[in-house]
Amino acid sequence: MKDTFRDLFATQKSAADLIYHLDKSLNGGFGGTNGGVLAAICIDAARSLAVDRIPIGIDARFVRNFPPGPARVAATPLNIGRSLTTISVDISRSDGKLATRGTVSFVNASALEPVDIPGIPESDEELLHPSNGRIWRQPAAQEIPLISTFRPRQLGKTSKGIVTASDTIWKSGSLQEAACIAADLSVGPPVAAALKGKSLAMPNPDLSLRFCSQTITPAYLVSTCQLAAMDQGLATTTLEVRDQGVLVATGISSTTCLKLSN
Description:
This protein is mostly beta strands. The chain has one domain (about 5-110, about 135-255): Beta Barrel (Porin). It has 4 helices and 13 strands. Strand 12 (about 235-245) and strand 13 (about 245-255) form a beta hairpin. Helix 1 packs antiparallel against helix 3 (about 175-185). It starts with 11 loop residues before the first strand and ends in a 6-residue tail after the last strand.
């Protein structure tokens, strides 16, 4: 286990951009880096332009897949205001093609009135404990490396959706980055369950999260994902990411149910 999120990538600085080295262990089921990892990298890169500010949201668009290799990451400030800061982040592949575009929002905590109201309560329905969850099986037809890396495991189903726990693979900091990964990993199960075994590719081309807590980064996070609607092969899912019951992030994602090529 690495000490920080940045330590996972042997990151280096080029003339104008950051370079993150992404290996196969971060790949999902479609031959490229998991989208949650790419969204997390957007936040990590944006932090350097928003020092001492708190990330409050990300909108990530996964333009094309990212095969293992060096990622060129360019962060551009759209606005740095007294209270709000908005950073645009582009992640490009070694061939120069854009893979991910993210917009990350930050807030200046000193500009906020310190008012606290509890978040959406956790479901009280019975679930497996994360230490006893059922780790995803590797499909017979292909290897999904992230299963070994993040150990996603199903804890059960509640009225709010299918519940998935996943490990944080660094020791400290970057809670919001961890939430991106946990959320993205949880998107597939409710869509797959609705399709009842039908053989389709199910990539999610986007992920939007709003961050609700500043707790210390835990050893794992739990994400509940629910299918909100499916229309003509386009699915929309809603998400809640929690740490020991505390709401860390809430969001939404799209999933495209694609016909498999012959």
